[in-house]
Amino acid sequence: MQQDLVTPTFHLILSMVVGLFLYLVATRLSGGSEGLGAWLRVEWIPLLLFFWARQRPNWPPLWIPWLFGLFLDVLRGEPLGLNALCFLTFTWLLSTRHEWVRSLSLFEQCMALFLFLCAYIALTLGVLLVTGHNLGAWWWLSLLPALITAALWPLTSVLLLFVHGRAFNA
User: What value does the mean pLDDT of the chain take?
Assistant: First the structure.
């Protein structure tokens, strides 16, 4: 009976909560979300969304990226709904390219993740620009998290397959 309570959605939510925790720890250790710490961060939530959307077609349920996007908006102090919109767009893009991403080699998946993250960051910066935020002269350094996140994809993929492997058989 207890095994029935552990569903793939539970695994997804658990990994997203761990992703938020990793974001908080990394932000605290790097001295905040401004300056160098903002440029050298890992985009944990999109990385996890990439993993889950790659593993299961038509996943994750859209309320999950929306909810975690709202949490991230509050944590970063960004306009409410910005990350929710960007995560929904990111998830939609992944779901439309699901079969293509699954057919790629691990290195090619890193490159695809980098491109998806660049689209996510471009959308974020575009919304911030339209809402009147000053992006500054160093706005292009916002792409560094995409590069760092894509470089972590092979390790993250193996780790998540090991930890959540049973969720794919459910």
Answer: 82
